[in-house]
Amino acid sequence: MDKLLASICCSLNMAVFSQKNATHFHLVSDIPEWLVFFLGHSSAEHCSLSHTFPYLTCFMDDAEAHWQTQQTTPLASGVWIETDELGNEVALEASALWVNGEAILLLQNLGEKYRKEVSHLQQLREGLLTQEKLENEVQKRTLKIKQREEEIAIKLVSLTSYRDEETGAHVKRIGLYAAAMGKALGWEAQQIDDIRIAAPMHDIGKIGIPDRILLKKGKLTENEFAIMKRHTEIGAKMLQDSNIPVLDMAADIALCHHEKWDGSGYPRGLVGEEIPESARITAIVDIYDALVHERVYKKAMCEQEALTLMESMTSSHLDPELFKVFVGLLPVMRRIRLEVNEIGDLLVSY
Amino acid sequence: MIQQKICLLGSFSVGKTSLIRRYVDSLFSEKYLTTVGVKIDKKYQKVDDKEYTLMLWDIAGEDDFTSIRTAYLRGMAGYIIVIDPTRPHSYDTALSIHDMVKSNAGALPAVFALNKADLKQSWQLDPPRYQHLHQLGHPVVETSAKQGQGVDDMFLQLLQQRENSHG
Hints:
The structure holds 2 protein chains of 2 kinds. By secondary structure, chain A is an alpha+beta fold. Chain A contains 15 helices and 5 strands. In chain A, strands 2-1-5-4-3 form a 5-stranded antiparallel β-sheet. In chain A, α7 (189-198) packs across α11 and α12 (277-292) packs antiparallel against α13. The longest helix of chain A is centred in the middle third of the chain and has 53 residues, at 111-163. Chain B has one domain: Rossmann fold (3-Layer(aba) Sandwich), CATH 3.40.50.300. Chain B contains 4 helices and 6 strands, in the order βαβββαβαβα. Chain B has a 6-stranded mixed β-sheet with strand order 2-3-1-4-5-6. Chain A binds chain B through residues 54-55, 57-59, 61-62, 78-81, 89, 91, 114, 117-118, 121-122, 124-126, 128-129, 132, 136, and chain B through 12-13, 32-40, 55, 61, 63-66, 69, 71-75, 87-89, 124. β3 of chain A pairs parallel with β2 of chain B.
């Protein structure tokens, strides 16, 4: 090797080896000081680099393939660390290339370049750790806020339960049925959580309906029914403009759960998909649960009878496509119906 | 003397280097120093009447800036995937590394190390994740590089799997 190349190799902290056979190499450059310790007794003319540097065992197959194709561009091994005679870490990298008909292996001590890279990566990773910690903290606090929102929502719902015939178990089931529908429809996790809390609030406006009408045993007069219908708008007014997504959804449901697919519902006579999907879902699950459970004023219907009746309501009252989804989920709905059947703690634990 | 290549894998800052340091030198440092590239340590270990030379490959943790080269896995006899349960993200990384290793190196002896057991009150590994980890069919060992807990056991369990599979 001429003096110029030898000087370049020296300033790059590099040793140049040429391959003698599958396992042995011949050092063709001057031996850099840092390499003396690692080569030890090995002869510079006949050294087994994989034995000296076990890391190279994972590189030699790739290097061999590279030499076979006589590629002149270097193939890098990736960095590995060795410990020198003073206990200091030395970062090395090998490169395989084909030069003038010879398989060449360059071995470089990365020195300062490596230390700079480590320092850079150290900063980036410490940044990532801080970011992970913050995200974790935000997640924990968000969960707490959600639990509080849920608690407040359930307390709100329980207010109406005091005044009408609905049971706590009924409102809880409505939320769970609606959440199962949202999941089947591919909703985002956040929306599913929201409808689980929002759907039970659909009748919250009944709090503004006088007892003589709300609790009347017989048929309502036309005037009384007009007042009764106002529970949708009262509920929406109570819940809207909060800037809290779950309450916004609850407001939509409260306002629109008596709208009908064919536009014959109230309060606004919305048609088809003009009715928010959350309200269309709530209408289906509310009717199902009301039909299959006993109330003081009616007996429970068997499920098949209820489904037949609901089927007849599709395209006039209920969204036919959503009803199909509901029917597909019957095993889930039955499980909810059977497992949530007592008034108890309304807080759903997840 | 049986020589075995063991790789330590996992997300960054889960304690791979610290576990090796504890196992090989019985030392621990609180300071986090990131690993770049690969560092290989050697440890002699006797199990029953067999003597092993373990070549411990400490492979830089996976993150957004670096990923594990599959070439590192060549000739590996087994591997340890380290998780820091105080950081749920490291659990997800562990599972994706496990899948990557299985598809590149096949079924090999493996151990999952739940490190930082000295900070157990801050662990955030929920029961479904914990259960899923156990169902993967490899030992799950709780370790603390700081206190030395479970470190020898983790390597021993790996070697025992190797023994069992070789009869």
